[in-house]
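INTERNAL TRANSFER SHEET
From: sequence group
To: structure group
Subject: Amidase

Please process the attached sequence and return the structure record in the designated field. Keep the field labels unchanged so the import script can parse them.
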Amino acid sequence: MALTAVELAEAVRAKENDPVEVTKETLARIAAADGLVGAFRKVRAEEALAEAALLAQRDDLGDLPLAGVPVAVKDVSEIGGEYVEWGSAAGGREPAPADDVIVRRLRRAGAVIVGITRVPELCIWPFSDTADGVARNPWDPSRTSGGSSGGSAAAVAAGLVPIAHGSDGLGSIRLPAAMCGLVGVKPGYGVISTPGDAGWFGMSTHGPLATTVADAALLLSVLADDPLLAEVKPPRDLRIALSTRVPLTRAPVPRQLTAPVDEIGTLLSAAGHTVEHATPRYGAAAVGGILARWFAGPHLQAHDFDPAKLQPRTRTHLRLGRALVRAGRIRDDTKFNWLTRAEEFFAAHDILVTPTLATLPPRARRWHEQTWLANAIPAMRLAPFAGLWNLAGYPAMSIPAGRHSSGLPLGVQLVAAPGGEARLLGVAAQIESRKPWPRTQDS
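Return from structure group:
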């Protein structure tokens, strides 16, 4: 993808680019590369071309923030005439009668929906494979692109689309962003409000995946219906905390994955911020709270799915979730106690910087054919830094921060207090300007 979403929309608004030609070029790239990458569950070739042709005739084309920009949508949002699969053969196949609010906002902004991206069943896992494909990391196709927004991350990192929609319940945007060298934003609770959206007890939210901070900010502003979020401004005089300590277990993290945190700290110190090493008081109750919700959320979500058609790993997961719900283990006090500790920490700090991942991306394989335990062990080892911020409802994002000796991208997570999305984007843009990253594997 030669142009960013910002550049592409500017060219379409200026009538230097035609939405139909942009869509044709995008579909050609997908046809050439997605057989290897496996990003898409469905490519909407005919539908996208028809939508682009209608878009080109809009009287307000010159005012649209995403004018003509091809966008991939994660397989969790309803597109009129398509069904939502959730990575599962166990759900219904009735086409949605209309777009949901996420897709309506994308279309209203001028985006062209070119395809639906692959997710693991019920979005439970940090690897995205289904019976008909495996989403692979464009930097190393032997590795997973992550999950549950792994298809969206693969599509962007491979240059098939400039931006993609994702959702994040326990790191499902940030983890694949880190694995694929992207910018991924999980906004705070309620920033992207959708009717009846309380997935995983309010921990899940929608968000953008992009190759630049400006593109991520633009897509976030559209998803949140808040144009001000697209205006990225450099921050001044922030209190930055660096931490590489794994919550609760303090398990060792490879030095190559923690080194970028210190490097970013040095960069931010040189930019005039106050930087120190400090770690929140995580606590066992908070970690137990997110694990309980990880089990119970999918259990409640799956009430309309056919149990006989669910994957064996999913049936095990749902049984554990049902037991936790019946035992009353989803308690508000675990969240409130963690919020008290998080508020205490952010009273003294403006931004927390951690690794995004605690291990390298697992191998790309048909994980859905493995046992629950074979899935759970690498998932839990991979993602300890991410989920607590879903429980708190705090904004967090992952940005590229270097390369591993294997050639894979490395990411760092930035966290802020509620309302801190603009601050996060400003810090990320400051890092990007001082330590630019390649936008895609071949750039």
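Handover comment: The first strand starts at residue 40 and ends at 43. Residues 220 and 425 are 10 Å apart (CA to CA).
Transfer complete.
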